[in-house]
Amino acid sequence: MGAGAIVKRAIEIASTEMSDGARAVLKRAASAGSPPALGAAAHAALVRAGKIRESVLWCYSDRLKTFAPWWRQLWAESLGKNGKGTTPVAALGPVDQHSQLQLFIAGPRDKLITVITTAAKGRGPRIAADLARLCGEDDLADRTMGDLAAAEGRATAETLARNGCPVRAIEVATLDESSLGELLMHFMLETIIAARLLGVDPFDQPAVEEGKVLAKKYLAGGG
Predict the structure, then answer these.
(1) CA-CA distances (angstroms) from residue 115 to 15, 152, 171, 201, 212?
(2) CA dist., res. 185 & res. 18, Å (int)
(3) Residue 78 and residue 192 in contact, taking contact as beta carbons nearer than 8 Å
(4) Catalytic residue (one of 43, 77, 182, 186)
(5) Is 98 a residue of the active site?
């Protein structure tokens, strides 16, 4: 089998596994208390109570670096209508512990924060004991980067909760094609349900279309 055929087959397998994961979430969504429905209900309740103006998706995995921006677009285009919706914020851990956590905790308490962690313990390169000592962090000696990421993700969620910030934690045991399909379907369903609870249509984007019309006009030399 040539390289092209191998790549094609790998894509087919990945697509099938992603679809299987998505279907599993869709099947469970019909039952009472499904995670997407609970997430949407919590969001809508906090909005109606005037508690939140922003929604934060904080992924503690570099492999999910592009997932949060995907969700940000989905959330913004689906809910931002008729004065409704919350501003989506994408964050990546542990990097944004230093650039955003201070604001999340000590700034305006107007955010619902979702922290996604993966089973990272024991994974990645190990930190040499001499380097740990050099940094004044002896506890990091012989720990992996995965150990550090897992500890920081857990600590961030707990710190937010202890400080009274609306927060929820989602742990992905194994980040693979199937679990990615589950995540995609979960947030698509959560977005659709939240839109319905807020009284907006999640399937149109009139503001975006208006901008496209003007852009085409300017490209055609119409102003």
Answers:
(1) 26, 11, 8, 27, 34
(2) 10
(3) yes
(4) 77
(5) yes
CA 144/CA 127 separation, integer angstroms: 6
Query: Is 186 tagged catalytic?
Result: no
Annotated active-site residue 77? The verdict is yes
In terms of Cα–Cα distance, which of 165, 187, 175, 181 is closest to 39? 187
Closest CA to 172 of 131, 102, 210, 120: 120
pLDDT in tens, 18-64: 899 988 898 888 887 899 999 999 999 999 999 999 999 999 998 99
What's the whole-model pTM score? 0.85
Pairwise CA distance, residues 11 & 1, whole Å: 15
Please pick, among 51, 212, 216, 217, the residue that the annotation labels catalytic.
212
Determine contact, residues 39/94, Cβ cutoff 8 Å.
no
